[in-house]
Amino acid sequence: MTFEELKPKVTDILHHENTLIDDKLLQICHLLKDNIDYYDWVGYYFRNGEKEELILGPYAGEATDHTVIPFGKGICGQVAVSNENFVVPDVNAQDNYIACSITVKSEIVVPMFVNGKNIGQIDIDSNVLDAFNEADERFLEFVNENVAKLY
Ligand code: SME
């Protein structure tokens, strides 16, 4: 499915009434993982209150041991500090990287802002090398901007 086809499906999920936020996020994770062939793990990490650490939220894909990530550690922890998208074409070329699965070859992390504050991020792993480009960044920014309206 194309990003343009997925966008209304994302906003439909977000507009459901009587659905908990985490259930909406879980549905979005599955929507993306199931419909974009190179999205092999899709999940959310959120800042744990005022602590400088991220906590794993809803995700689709293999379970991970990395349910808590300190700021600065791994790709996710670096985005918590930089507030900028991080596209990693080859995870094996990164020093500051937390491996969740040996099959993962590339990764993208896009932060999410509420009132200018970075509250968390969407993290996507791919088993394909150099899987992500600017179209993924723009699409995931769209998803996060709409998810942020729930907070
Ligand atoms: N690879 C991430 C850790 C999270 S897993 O991909 C689910 C990182 O380096 O921060």
TrEMBL record:
InterPro entries: GAF, GAF-like_dom_sf. Residues 26-143 form the GAF domain. Gene3D superfamilies: 3.30.450.40. This is GAF domain-containing protein. It comes from Flavobacterium ichthyis.
